[in-house]
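Q: What structure does this chain adopt?
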Amino acid sequence: MVPLIDTTVDGHVHTRLCKHAVGEMEEYVEQAVRRGLTTVCFLEHLETDIAYQPPCWLDDDEFAYYFEEGLRLKERYRGVVAVRLGVEMGCNPAAIDAIRHRLKRYPIERIGLSCHFHQHGLSHLNLLSRRPQSLDRLAAIGADAVISTYFATLIKAVASLDCDVLCHLDAVLRHLPGITFNNEHRGQIAQLLDAMQGKDIALEINTSGFDYRGSAFPAPWIISAALERGIRLEAGSDAHHPSEVGRYFDQLPHYLEPLCR
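A:
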């Protein structure tokens, strides 16, 4: 029987290069070896035309280093653990063509789709940040409206951009207390899953959620809806420290098994 999810592959790790994680690329690879993983995939942040400070993504020079060092690690650890080089592509709906242009410039092996920012006037607010500068303003705009825009952005991104996996689908406003999805949001999630099914985009089971809320991203009911559509599940730790590579992967088979009934 084919397993529901491959827990020997961590498809989502970051490094110090994104400016909000710590550790060198090789430290993450070494941890993957210690964990007994077969594959570790870096998914460094690629954002385009986002007006937000401080930046929490890679610039062109950092991407040049990223791919150079990644190729070195591929060779050094060949036969020990597979090293893959990807990006976590943030969708800015006002910059679709520019995103496509940037993706063509790099030897990207895996594209994770996400949406981290909400446009507010001439600037952007960080949807996943604890910083009051974003969180307070997003709350003032109204959680329901912000969440609706978030899902609409992901729906547009799936239709407009190529990607392999959708990351932390329901992590929007994860630091704002009392967040719930209304009927409109649930309809948008269904539309999003249908679009993913049509383009064979995998759903990430992001185990950072166990630390944030005691369950993976996305919620169990979303995972069940994805499985009903035959959408593939892929594991990602969203590691921001080398010790987090493969975190909670040992729990995933037991966690997911009831959701596929």
